[in-house]
Amino acid sequence: MGGHAVLVEFGATIDKRIHDRVVKLDAALKAAPFQGFVEAVPAYASILVCFDPLVADHRTTEAAIAERLAAEVPKTIGAMREVEVCYDPDLAPDLAAVAEASGLSPEDVISAHLSGDYSVFMYGFAPGYAYLAGVPKAIQQPRKPAPIRGIAAGSVLIAGPQCLVSTLTMPTGWWIIGRSPTKILDAASNDRPFLFDVGDAVRFRRISRAEFDARCLA
């Protein structure tokens, strides 16, 4: 990838077994960085390994990656993060549509969403946008034909097997099924600007409208 990186691809699908290999290599690079290593950027099924071209090159970087792929690395267990979500209709404008398309009631969609086995697979697209895998098949829907502008920060979005909580007011073509007051992005923090790390598990907890309003005022 250009003159300063190597892309390691493990597959082409959203699959936990594939992503576990991504996380394993990421952990191995953090535990034993090679000379010239700058950073690793994990994604769904690949990881970008960046190096200082004044110290390393593609050949030495590929050799270092091969060594770490062959090494035994203890399994990394991410933290469990909780995200609050309110499903009131005005905060979940697409909940009824997802229910109709899924052949379920809105309450069934909420129950399914809360039961999902979520983990953080990657960051991308916008600051703090943590892409979660684990949306139950019963409520998976393809992206909308066209994005909608001006979607509020904190919106809980789903598309296919993916879920995320938006951090900025932006357009989206994903389905908006709730809104969360949980702070995912802390732009003022130099030490920890994002709530999640790649590999963390996430669970959603339903809150009332009164709790949502109180959290937003806090």
From TrEMBL:
Domain Carboxyltransferase: 1-196
SUPFAM superfamilies in the cross-refs: Cyclophilin-like, PH0987 N-terminal domain-like
Entry annotated with the keyword ATP-binding: yes
Organism domain of life: Bacteria
Keywords in alphabetical order: ATP-binding, Hydrolase, Nucleotide-binding
Pfam families: CT_C_D
InterPro entries: CT_C_D, Cyclophilin-like_dom_sf, PxpB
Molecular function per GO: ATP binding; hydrolase activity
PANTHER family assigned: 5-OXOPROLINASE SUBUNIT B (PTHR34698:SF2)
Protein name, as recorded: Allophanate hydrolase subunit 1
Organism listed in the record: Rhizobium sophorae
Phylogenetic classification of the source organism: Bacteria, Pseudomonadati, Pseudomonadota, Alphaproteobacteria, Hyphomicrobiales
